[in-house]
Amino acid sequence: MAHKREEKSKVQDAQVTDDQQMKETVKTSGKPLRKRLWLWLCGSCVLLLLFVVFALPMGVKYYLVDWLQKRGADQVIIDRFGWNPFLGKLWLEGVDVSRDGRSLMTQRATKRR
Predict the structure, then answer these.
(1) Which sequence spans correspond to the domains of the chain?
(2) What rounded mean pLDDT belongs to the chain?
(3) Nearest to residue 79, comparing CAs of 41, 106, 51, 53?
(4) Which of 2, 52, 79, 96 has the smallest number of CB atoms closer than 10 Å to its CB?
(5) Three-state DSSP class for residue 102
């Protein structure tokens, strides 16, 4: 009989420790998952912001050149496309559009102070 009691107590002790380990695992695994999700979301927002600030102006510049060439311009040169997202302003500097050897539009780049 004593032997059966010892086996029962060992089994119960093993179950208790397993239950405690599962509870601790569940408690601790929730926070890192939230932290990782939060970091992933913040990192994605930062990368999207960097993309908008740096890559979007270059894309707009190449799109404008392509758009003007598809509408009849032989040669299109845009030195600089700039934008200020805080004021909602866009500008072009150093634009030269020509067709059949004639200049349709010329705007020289201005010196910045």
Answers:
(1) 2-107
(2) 80
(3) 106
(4) 2
(5) strand
